[in-house]
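As the next step, I wrote out a protein sequence along with its fold in token form, included below for the reader:
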Amino acid sequence: MAKRNELGEWKKRVKMEYVRLQQDKKSKKADDVKLAWNRNRNKMSNVLSEKQITWNDSKVTWPSGPKLPVHVSCMKSAEVIGSEGNSLSVGTVLNMYSIIVKSN
């Protein structure tokens, strides 16, 4: 009987150790993913800041866009929200079959 209790206890210990190792592996992988994401984000922001400097120094200007229709106040609008919750851009949704009513 004593051998059965020892065997059962060893099985419990092995199982607990296996579960602990699996949890450690999962948390390590999650940490690695977070670190890689942060490193990539920092690299990307550094490259973009360098590019922003060159873009500001250049003499290139954007051509003016098309004139907005008269009924822009009643058109649907779309807003792009970044991953940090800040609003990146707001624009109107142009409909292919919009009816423009001109009043004289």
